[in-house]
Specification:
Layout: E1 3-8, E2 14-18, H1 23-29, E3 48-53, E4 56-58, H2 68-72, E5 75-77, E6 81-83, E7 87-91, H3 105-108
Parallel strand pairs: 1-7
Antiparallel strand pairs: 1-2, 3-5, 3-7, 4-6
């Protein structure tokens, strides 16, 4: 199974990724950081990147996060893309929703005391 060098443009850091793994899973498997991690299956849009250089194959992406124009311009979800060459990417994804609910004073009164 071939593997390729994936370089994160902002930091200059790189990692090796098998052609059988998504760019996001390859990064996580090596304990690397750089691409924001969310749901890992294309539903949240957190791992959106711009492929600056290199070739890849992609799986279906949610149009809520990646338009057809985005995809044509190389703006993709890293959890839905596998490398077929060395890749340089730029991180675009941002967290669009809170994953944790903040507890306010009204919520605190509903919590039983011990």
């Amino acid at each position: 199974m071939p593997s390729y060098t994936i370089t994160i443009e902002e930091t200059g850091q790189s990692y090796r990724c098998s052609d059988e793994l998504s760019l996001l899973v390859g990064m996580e498997a090596l304990g690397k950081k750089g691409i924001p991690v969310g749901c890992r299956n294309g539903g949240c849009g957190v791992c959106k990147v711009q492929i600056v250089q290199g070739q890849y194959v992609s799986r279906v992406m949610s149009r809520d996060h990646v338009s057809a124009e985005d995809e044509a311009q190389g703006r993709v979800l890293s959890c839905r893309v596998r490398p077929t060459s060395d890749i340089t990417l730029r991180v675009l994804g941002t967290m669009k929703k809170n994953v944790c609910r903040l507890v306010g004073a009204a919520d605190a009164s509903a919590v039983p005391s011990t």
